[in-house]
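seq as requested:
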Amino acid sequence: MAWIESNPFNIFRNNKANERQPDFGGTILIPGELLQKMFDDFKQSDDKFARVKFASWRASKANQEKNIVMSAKLSMNEEPRNAPKQETKVEEFEDDDIPF
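C-alpha cells:
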C-alpha cells in the first residue's frame, strides 16, 4: 500500500496577545499530488469529506527552544476510496471432510 505525504511541518507555540488567540499555529505545504488525491477522495465520497491522516512527533529540546512544539505531516492512501477489495475465497467442504 503506497502513501502520498506532505512535507513535514512544525507546530509552534503562539505568543498570545489575548486568550482568544490560538495556543499553537503553523503552515502546511501540501504538494499537488496530495491535493489532487484529497480532491478525488472528496468527489468519490458519499458524505463529501476527504479523509487525511495526521501524524505528529514531539519536538526535540533544541527545537523547543525555538518555540516548536511538534513536527507533523499529512498522508493519504494512494488507492482510491472505492477501490475493489480483494475477496478471500473460502473453500467449501462437506461434513465428511471433518475428522471428528
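The longest strand covers residues 68-77.
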